[in-house]
């Protein structure tokens, strides 16, 4: 069974945001708390993914796994020509 312990959090939000939350809760027939938990979970997942991808990108840079800017620019410039270059690797 999942841990059912909870903690009450309080946040001041603009009235317009609270009104949107109330409308969404009514439309979905869900509580404000349920919607806020869904939103917070999605945001935290997004931020964790962003952090992971940033660490991976920095690791690539540290390991020299980068593409030269001039090579990318030449490729982009070639896309509007009759003979585009292959994507740099």
What do you see in this structure?
- The protein is an all-alpha fold.
- It has one domain (17-79).
- 62% of the residues lie in helices and 0% in strands.
- The chain has helices at 15-28, 32-62, 69-78.
- The termini are far apart.
Overall number of structural domains: 1
Structural class: mainly alpha
Query: What does the radius of gyration come to?
Result: 23 Å
Order of helices and strands: HHH
Shape: elongated
Q: Which parts are unreliable, with pLDDT below 50 for 5 consecutive residues or more?
A: none
Main β-sheet: number of strands, strand sense, barrel status?
Answer: none
* pLDDT averaged residue by residue: 95
Q: How many helix segments? A: 3
Strand fraction = under 5%
| Total beta-strand segments | 0
N-to-C CA distance: 48 Å
The helicity comes to: 55-70%
Features:
89 residues; mainly alpha; 3 helices; 0% strand; elongated; Arc_rbn_hlx_hlx; Non-func_TypeII_TA_Antitoxin; CopG
